[in-house]
Write a structure and sequence with these properties.
Helix content of chain B: 25-40%
Structural class of chain A: mainly alpha
Oligomer: heterodimer
Number of helices of chain B: 9
Order of helices and strands of chain B: EEEHEEHEHHHHEHEHEEH
Strand content of chain B: 25-35%
Largest interface: A-B, 18 and 25 residues
Structural class of chain B: alpha/beta
Distance between the termini of chain A: 43 Å
Strand order of the largest sheet of chain A: 1-2
Strand order of the largest sheet of chain B: 6-7-8-3-9-10
Number of helices of chain A: 11
Radius of gyration of chain A: 19 Å
Largest sheet of chain B: 6 strands, mixed
Distance between the termini of chain B: 35 Å
Shape of chain B: globular
Number of strands of chain B: 10
Number of strands of chain A: 2
Chain lengths: ~290, ~230
Amino acid sequence: MEWLNIILQGVLVGGLYAMFAAGLSLIFGVMRLVNIAHGDLIVLAAYVALVATDTLGVNPLLSLVVVVPVMAAIGYALQRLVLNRTLGGDLLPPLLVTFGLSVIIQNGLLELFTADSRKLQAGAIETASLHLGGGLAVGTLPLLQFVVAVAVIAGLQALFYRTALGRAFRATSDDQPVAQLMGLDNRHVFALAMALSLAVVAVAGVFLAVRANFDPSIGPARLIFGFEAVIMGGLGSLWGTLAGGIILGVAQAIGAQLDPGWQLLAGHIAFLVVLALRPEGLFPKVQG
Amino acid sequence: MPDPLLEVRALDAGYGDFQALFGISLDVAAGQVVAVIGANGAGKSTLLKSIAGVMPSRRDAVRFDGEPVGDLPAYRRVARGIALVPEGRRLFPSLSVEENLKIGGQLGRPGPWTLPRIYDLFPVLAERRAMPATSLSGGQQQMVAIGRALMSNPKLLLCDEISLGLAPIVVREIYARLPAIVGEGLSLVIVEQDIVQALAAASQVYCLQEGRVALEGAAGALTREAIAAAYFGV
């Protein structure tokens, strides 16, 4: 029963990883951009939430009302002003520019907020839990985070396959010149995709900041978790990304149970095993 | 005669150091069908791409509806009413047949063409609306490509090699629908290697040779010999 509990906790953490990964996957899917600054943008969202909760005096979960639009606006501007200029035939310029962006965000946050660990206080919900019987219990907050993650993935899935915006994303991803012949301005479509990605980042950032301490340097590790979830799930598959996040979360939980030092190692090993057995991921959709 | 819908004047275009078009001039009146013929590499596709805005040109090299549009990007020319059926169809593989058609109409330009009207024109597409567009036969894919362009309710429809790679019977079937399309009042420029089809469908013919207009005239007035001479440059 103890192990069942551990696996269950791992699954719930996996939801958070899936949210890290969904924004990354979306950007790669639409414009083949690998965003090295993704993890730092998650941390940036956490600090935006910190400022919002401090100044407005609201619960961090309520601060999402502010943090999501702010991050989406940052995403739109970032894409229009900077990242669109790096896109083209070559994969290297966007990698270098987002790497630079990662350095700028980390150091900018360090200047503004120091290297002190921070945490958002969500109040009573942090310690509340649900007893499922038979000795199983889940925290209300991790459960909420998982439910939100599933809702985010389902929402993105519906947006991609049921709306005009999703059609525009898929068409632009398929064939940029022809998408322009349909009246789509690819610079605007890409900026909307980045805005959407950072809206998801905002949700992920707030949950990250509520569940654990954060400081300006933790972005790159979140990026790795996101990457691993995307690759395990298979490129282009949103539900696969959720599966990838869950595998990573469960592997880390099991590793941590065996030896507290093995948490991260177990996650990476699970990633390598999936990569060795199914290099294209579990539910691949995009080739190349 | 009123101003033509499309005026191309002294249009130059090229790819990097390679110049593909030299001083092309061409007129298309409202409701007119114009054929552009010529051998491989004569610059026919480049001409259509320049008109549609896939390739940039000088601002006043392309005038549409009395306005210079030569420097506008493709997505803004669609909004003005220029649609291109690209060579090789270029359907979106991630989209179903119906989604390909819908995205063609995503700007919401008013006009006669709607999803039901496209399905009336090409009934076979209605049966396959939910299938991935690229799973259809070549001829059906061409119908999707034409329907997708029509969905933007253009004033000017540019068709690049719509007979390419299709069986003659399928080509005849597609060409048989052109009168119904032109009947809605739009103008048509067709680029073709299939000269017989092009001459039968068009009222005015331009023959390109190595990036220049080698011959132009009313479709009925051109002799086979004159076309052969302009085509091959002999």
